[in-house]
Amino acid sequence: MCFVYILKCADNSLYTGWTNNLDKRLDKHSAGDGAKYTRGRLPVELVYYEAYDTKEEAMSRESRIKRMSRSQKIELTKKSSVNP
């Protein structure tokens, strides 16, 4: 499984990424070892994720989400509860 996820950072910004191991990736972000963007915006909170069968599907969805406006991303997060 591969996952696309959205994190809410301490400065209220949103970060979108993909991974094949969501728990491990969240631990990396929380430890400050994740993406350069999130390192200076700790703590981060998982607010949304989707699961996909392939890396290609996840990467494609990540790209589409990154092109969304902030308000569209917020609406997307409201449609799903997060229970990783």
- Give the termini separation: 13 Å
Mean pLDDT: 93
Q: Supply Rg.
A: 12 Å
Strand content: 25-35%
Please, how many helices?
Answer: 4
Shape call: globular
Largest sheet: 3 strands, antiparallel
CATH class: Alpha Beta
CATH superfamily: GIY-YIG endonuclease
Count of distinct strands: 3
CATH topology: GIY-YIG endonuclease
Question: Spatial order of the strands in the main sheet?
Answer: 2-1-3
Structural class: alpha+beta
CATH architecture name: 3-Layer(aba) Sandwich
Point out poorly predicted stretches.
none
Report the helical percentage: 40-55%
Order of helices and strands: EEHHEHH
How would you characterize this protein structure?
- Helix content is 40%, strand content 25%.
- The chain has one domain: 3-Layer(aba) Sandwich (GIY-YIG endonuclease), CATH 3.40.1440.10.
- A 3-stranded antiparallel beta sheet has the order 2-1-3, with helices on both faces.
- The radius of gyration is 12 Å and the shape is globular.
- It contains 4 helices and 3 strands.
- The model has no long low-confidence stretch (mean pLDDT 93).
- By secondary structure, the chain is α+β, with helices and mostly antiparallel strands.
- It has helices at residues 22-30, 36-39, 55-66, 70-78; strands at residues 2-8, 14-19, 45-52.
